[in-house]
Design goal:
Aminopeptidase; hydrolase activity, acting on carbon-nitrogen (but not peptide) bonds, in linear amidines (chains A, B); Bact_exopeptidase_dim_dom (chains A, B); about 35% helix; homodimer; alpha+beta; nine-stranded mixed beta sheet; 2 domains; five-stranded antiparallel beta sheet; Alpha-Beta Plaits; 12 helices; Zn-dependent hydrolase (chains A, B)
Chain lengths: ~425, ~425
C-alpha cells in the first residue's frame, strides 16, 4: 500500500537521518559497526546530540551514559513520556536495529516542532547505553541500570573483550554524565524493526507489540561412554551424541506442539572428544525456551526436563540440566498497547498483535513504567547482519504510529 | 578359566617383558607415551632389539624404520613367517596396544628356543614404524610403505606437529635402515588386544579375526537459515541443527538395522554460528560407516545418502555429502584364520570369530601376504587410554595361540 499523504511526520527527513547515522562506522557490506562506547559510538551519539540541540531539546546524560533529549511540556511538574532505543550495534550490525527507534523518536519531536504542537508532559528521546552487549556483556546495560536490574557500580567495572573498563570508556568518550540513573518517566514507547519474518510473511505494515516472551535458558551435559567407532558394536554403545540428537528433536517438537508463539532453540552443541572415529562420550548443548505466557512456559520447562530424562534413560547415558538464565514474560501496558493499535488502525495500516521474541530496552523499562512497542517489518526478517534492511515507507509508517501514540500519551496542551 | 599348565609359552616372561617395556615413557596414570620416533620410541626399540639379539635373532631395519628380528629356518631359501605389530603409542596410550603383538611374537621365538624347535621357514618379529599416527600422520605408515600403500619418499617428508621431518627423525634415532621396504613374507600373524568390548561381554578368551571391516567416511554440510531464536516462529525456521539431529538419528538407525557387524558413527559435529539464541544456519558433521561385507557396505552408502536427502528436503535445508575416505573390507586368509581357530580350540580356550573394526598393520599387510590376527580381551573394551589393561592369563592365551598358528605355518623342520 502506498503511503498516505497526510502523515504527521516527514518520511524523507527520517530516511535522511537514518542514512547519515549509518555513515558512522559504515561497513563494506552496507551495515554499521558502532560497538558500545567505541570511537564510532561516540561519533554517533555526538551527531544525535547535535540534532537534538538543533531541535531545541535539552540534553542530559546519566551516570551510566544514557542520553535523554527533552522537549518541554506545558506542565513542568509532570514526568516525561519517553521514546527511544539504542545507537550501538553488533560488530557486523545493520543500519536500523536500535537506530530506527531513536531517530523515529527524534522525527516525532521534529514534527511536533514543525506543527507547533505543545504537549502537557515533556517528551524525551532516550539513547540507552550498550543494548547489544557485544563489546561489554551483559546486553541492555543502560536500561538495566536505569530500572534497577543491575547496580551502577557493577556495570561501571565491566571489562570489554578489548580490556577497556566501561566506566573509563564513559569518561573517555565524554558520556560519563552526572544525572542519577533513576530517571522519572510517565510512559515509554519504543519503535523497533521486528528482527523476525512474521510481519513480512503476513504482509502486515505494523506490529502492535503486546509484550515480550518469557525466556528460560538451560545448559545440558550428556555423558555416555567414549569408545572406538570400529570395534564397539552398536548395541554396546552409550553414544552421547545419538542421545543428544534425540533431545534436540524433542526440543523442536516442544516448540511445534505448544500453542501460542512458543519458540524452542538449541543454538550451541559441542561434541567431545570430537574425533571422526570415536563415539562421543560427552555432549554439551544449550536450550532456549520462550513463551509469552508464564504458566505455559512453566509447563514447557517440565515437559523439556521429562523428555531429556526419558531419552537419557533409554540411551543409557546421563543428562544434567542446569538453569542458565531466566526472564519472566513481560506483558506491556494495555492502555499504551491499545493506543499503538488505534494509531495503526487510524492510518489504515495493516497490522497485527505480536509478541517480542527478542530482548529490548523496553522489556526492562516495562518492569517500572507503562510501556509499549511499535514493530515495523524488516527485509527477510534478517537482523544483526550488515544486510539488514527496511522499506522507507515502513519506517515512515512506524514513526507515524509512534507520533500518534506519543501525542495521545503526552496529552495535547 | 584358569590357565592350562602345558602352554607352549612362558606367561611370566611375557608379562615381565610387557612390564619392562611399559616403563619406557611410563605415564602418571599407568599408561605409556612413546610417540613415533621420539626419544621414548627409540628407547623402546633399542630395548626390543637388545632382547631379540639376546634371543639369537638377526635384526634388520628397512628404509622407513621397520624392524625385523629373524630366527633362521631350516630352508634359507624360504621367505619368513612374520609376527608383529608396533611399539609406538598414543600420547596418553596404554601398555598393550601394539606392544602385546610385538612381545607375544618375541615370546614365541624365545619359546621356540627353549624347546629347541626348528622351523622350515624363518620366523620373524616385525615392529612397524608409526602405527598410531599421533605424531606423524597418517597412521600405519611403516606397514603402508612396506605394502605399497604409500611411497617411501612421501612418508620420509612428513612433518610432525612438533616440526620434525620423519626422515630426519629416523636418522636421529638410528633407525634409518638400508634394507629395501619391500620385505618378502610367507605369511603374517598379528596378535592384538581387541580394543572393543565384545570378547569381555561374551566371556570369550580368544577372538579369531576373520578380516577387517570396510570403512566409508563422509563429511556432511547442512545449510539452513541463521535467524534469531526469539522472533522467528517455529514454522518459519530452517534450522540446520534440527535437520542434522534427524540425520544423526538416521545414521544410528542404519547401524542398528543392518545385519552383521555394521557400525555407524557421527564423531564430529560443529554448529554455526554457535550462539545460544541464534538458530543454527549451518552444521558440519562426519559420518563413519563400517561393514565387513562390500555389498552390504555399498547398500549402507545408498541408504545413508537417501536418508540425508529425504531429511533435508523435509526440513527445507540443503545437505552436501562429500566422500572423505574409503577402505574396502579386507577378509583375512582362510587357511591362516582356521589355524588360529584350531589353535584356540586345541587349548580349550573359549573363542569366537570376530571382525576387526579398527585399523591395524595387518590390514595393510593382508593386501599382499596371507594374514590372520589373534585378538585377546581388554578390560572394559578400553584402549587408546592410560587405563588400558589386560588380564595376564589372557595375554598368555593369546601368545599360546600365536605360537601354535606360527608353528603350523612355518612348518616343523
Amino acid at each position: 500500500m502506498s503511503l498516505p499523504s497526510n502523515l504527521p511526520i516527514n518520511p524523507d527527513r527520517l530516511w535522511a537521518s537514518l542514512a547519515a547515522m549509518a555513515e558512522i562506522g559504515a561497513t563494506a557490506k552496507g551495515g554499521s559497526c558502532r560497538l558500545a562506547l567505541s570511537d564510532e559510538d561516540k561519533a554517533g551519539r555526538d551527531l544525535f546530540v547535535s540534532w537534538c540541540e538543533a531541535a531545541g531539546c535539552t540534553v542530559t546524560v546519566d551516570r551510566v551514559g544514557n542520553i535523554f533529549a527533552r522537549r518541554p511540556g506545558s506542565d513542568p511538574s509532570l514526568p516525561p513520556v519517553v521514546m527511544g532505543s539504542h545507537l550501538d550495534t553488533q560488530p557486523t550490525g545493520g543500519r536500523f536495529d536500535g537506530v530506527f527507534g531513536v531517530l523515529a523518536g527524534l522525527e516525532v519531536i521534529r514534527s511536533l516542532n514543525d506543527r507547533g504542537l505543545a504537549t502537557r508532559h515533556p517528551v524525551e528521546v532516550a539513547v540507552w547505553t550498550n543494548e547489544e552487549g557485544s563489546r561489554f556483556s551483559p546486553p541492555m546495560m543502560g536500561s538495566g541500570v536505569a530500572t534497577g536490574v543491575f547496580t551502577l557500580d557493577e556495570i561501571l567495572d565491566k571489562i570489554a573483550q578489548d580490556g577497556a573498563r566501561l566506566g573509563d570508556e564513559l569518561v573517555r568518550t565524554g558520556y560519563a554524565g552526572d544525572a542519577p540513573v533513576e530517571h522519572p518517566m510517565h510512559a515509554y514507547l519504543e519503535a523497533h524493526i521486528e528482527q523476525g519474518p512474521v510481519l513480512e510473511v503476513e504482509e502486515k505494515e505494523i506490529g502492535v507489540v503486546t509484550g515480550a516472551q518469557g525466556q528460560r535458558w538451560y545448559e545440558v551435559t550428556v555423558t555416555g561412554v567414549e569408545a572406538h567407532a570400529g570395534p564397539t558394536p552398536m548395541r554396546l554403545r552409550r553414544d552421547a551424541l545419538v542421545a543428544s540428537a534425540r533431545m534436540v528433536t524433542a526440543v523442536q517438537a516442544l516448540g511445534l506442539e505448544t500453542p501460542g508463539d512458543a519458540c524452542t532453540t538449541v543454538g550451541i552443541l559441542d561434541v567431545h572428544p570430537h574425533s571422526r572415529n570415536v563415539i562421543p562420550g560427552r555432549v554439551f548443548f544449550t536450550v532456549d525456551l520462550r513463551h509469552p505466557d508464564a504458566a505455559t512456559l512453566a509447563g514447557m520447562d517440565r515437559r523439556f526436563r521429562d523428555a531429556v530424562a526419558a531419552i537419557a534413560d533409554e540411551a543409557g547415558v546421563t543428562a544434567e540440566v542446569a538453569d542458565f538464565w531466566e526472564f519472566p514474560p513481560t506483558p506491556f501496558d494495555a492502555t499504551l498497547v491499545k493506543r499503538v493499535r488505534d494509531a495503526a488502525a487510524g492510518f489504515g495500516f495493516s497490522h497485527r498483535d505480536i509478541v517480542s521474541g527478542a530482548g529490548h530496552d523496553a522489556v526492562y523499562v516495562a518492569g517500572k513504567v507503562p510501556t509499549a512497542m511499535v514493530f515495523i517489518p524488516c527485509e527477510d526478517g534478517i537482523s544483526h547482519n550488515e544486510v539488514e534492511n527496511i522499506a522507507p515507507a515502513d519506517g515512515a509508517r512506524g514513526a507515524a504510529v509512534l507520533f500518534e501514540a506519543l501525542v495521545a500519551t503526552a496529552g495535547a496542551a
